[in-house]
Amino acid sequence: MRSPVSLCTGVTYDRSSIQRWLQSGNATCPATMQPLSSTDLVPNLTLLRLIRLWNDNAPNPNPNPSAITSTLSSSSSSSSSSPSAAVKELLREARDAADPAPALREIAGILEEDDEDEGEVDKDGLAAAVAPLLRVEGAEAAAARVLALVLAADGADKRAVAAAADPGASAAALARVLRTKEMGPRVDAARVLESLIAACGSESEAAAVAEAPDLIPELIRLAGEGDAPSAAAAAAMGASPGSGRGRGGGGGRWCGAARWARRRGFWGAPRRRGRRRRRRR
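The line above is the sequence of U-box domain-containing protein; the predicted structure tokens follow.
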């Protein structure tokens, strides 16, 4: 078994085998024959580690080492079976697939599963590779989740996202995520947007982000939906490097939106209202 993955039924298969099964038009679990509510493949890292451990410590070398080349290696070089190797394989799948969302969700699962393993992943390289996929229709939320996890990791270069992203198109993609009903993806989008805005190197880039349809109204809406969403939205609207420059630039729009939302009590301390003075007769 080169790359063990689990279906929603909990049964684990080799990735290439189950992919052939699904691509043949089957919509059931081969072992249980239960209908599949989702065809997402989740990496079984526990089994992958056991396979690696057995491979590294087996008294007799595997007679056909090429059978496990994609995820396992000899004892002198076991890094290819690490989560980093799995992420690289999934990135190739995401770039080649018409719908990169399933592979991106698997990458997010790897990053979420084990903090120690996450440290093996090249975060900056991952951010640069995933940022363009943010603009693929239908994959926006999955890409935003991966980018949010990368940006939250220690030592991540927040500029890596902006370096590989087209500011205007990426902001439009994040706005589509912000318009959805699910809170998690919306918070992810706001956090990615914060890094995207902060890395804008010019007023024109900041303006391209600020002018994305419905972006600022959706951030303001998010700001009124709890502490974590409020903090994410506030950070995004306060991240523009040009907030102190002219009124016409993107920074002015962000700064104005932040002041508007704060005055209306979407986050932060509510505005104090003085007592009305009675008119003297």
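Note on the example: Residues 1-56 form a domain with the Herpes Virus-1 fold (CATH 3.30.40.10). Confidence is low (pLDDT under 50) at residues 65-81, 241-249, 266-275.
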